[in-house]
Design a protein that fits this description.
The chain is an alpha/beta fold. The protein has six helices and nine strands; from the N terminus they run βαβββββαβααββαα. It has helices at about 20-25, 85-95, 105-110, 125-130, 160-170, 175-185, and strands at about 5-10, 30-40, 45, 50, 55, 65-70, 100, 145-150, 150-155. Helix 1 (about 20-25) packs parallel to helix 5 (about 160-170), helix 3 crosses helix 4 and helix 5 packs antiparallel against helix 6 (about 175-185). The longest helix is centred in the C-terminal third of the chain and has 13 residues, at about 175-185. The N and C termini lie far apart (about 40 Å).
Length: about 190
C-alpha cells in the first residue's frame, strides 16, 4: 500500500515550493501518493497560475497519512489559513512528520511548534514579524532547510533542500541515491 502525503495548498500558493518533492514522491516507482488538502474543495490558483482542485478539505481530511506538507504562499501572512491548525495538531499528536516552507514556517512558529526545535525559515526577523508569540529564536538556524523532531522547515528559496530533507526523513530511497538526486538537480547536466 502506498504511503499518503497530504499537501496543504491555499489561494495563491507558491507552486514551485512543492514541485521537486511532489514530483519525486508521486513518481510511478515511488511508494507514495500525493493528495492535496485545502480549507475547502474549491479550485485554488497558485502564484504561477495553476488551478488545482483539492482532494480534501480540512474538515474531512483522511486520518491515515504519512506526511503533512504546508506550502508557502501569500495567504499565510494574512492569517487566512488558520483553519488548517486541527490537521497540524492531529499530525503532531500522531507523530506524523510535518514539513513547512516559506511563510508556512511562520504559521508553525506562531503556534509554538518551533519553540524547542532547530528550524529554518525565510529569516529570523521575518518569522518574528509574522509570529508575535514565537519563542524559538535561539533555535533558528541560518540554513536552507532543517529537519528536527520530524519537522522539516525551509525558506522559500530552498525547494530542493526542502525535498532532500523530506526524502531523507521518509527513507523513500537510500541516502546515496538522495544525495545523487540532489546533486543532479542542484548542478544539472552541465556545471557552470
Amino acid at each position: 500500500m502506498k504511503r499518503k502525503v497530504l499537501v496543504f495548498i491555499s489561494e495563491s500558493f507558491a507552486d514551485w515550493e512543492s514541485a521537486y518533492i511532489c514530483s519525486t514522491l508521486n513518481a510511478p516507482e515511488s511508494n507514495c501518493n500525493i493528495k492535496t488538502l485545502s480549507l475547502d474543495t474549491k479550485p485554488k490558483t497558485s502564484m504561477g497560475g495553476f488551478r488545482v482542485l483539492p482532494d480534501y478539505c480540512v474538515e474531512d481530511f483522511p486520518k491515515e497519512f504519512d506526511l503533512l506538507l504546508l506550502i508557502g504562499g501569500l495567504s499565510w501572512k494574512e492569517k487566512k489559513n488558520n483553519a488548517v491548525l486541527p490537521v497540524v495538531e492531529y499530525a503532531s499528536k500522531k507523530h506524523i512528520p510535518i514539513g513547512a516552507i516559506c511563510d508556512a514556517v511562520g504559521f508553525l512558529a506562531e503556534q509554538g511548534y518551533l519553540d524547542t526545535i532547530k528550524h529554518s525559515g525565510n529569516s529570523l526577523q521575518g518569522i518574528k514579524d509574522q509570529a508575535p508569540h514565537y519563542k524559538g529564536e535561539l533555535n533558528f538556524v541560518e540554513k536552507q532547510a532543517v529537519c528536527d523532531s520530524a519537522i522539516i522547515t525551509a525558506n522559500g528559496t530552498a525547494p530542493l533542500e526542502f525535498a532532500r530533507e523530506i526524502l531523507l526523513l521518509l527513507k523513500v530511497m537510500p541516502v546515496e541515491t538522495v544525495q545523487e538526486w540532489y546533486g543532479f538537480h542542484k548542478t544539472g547536466f552541465y556545471q557552470a
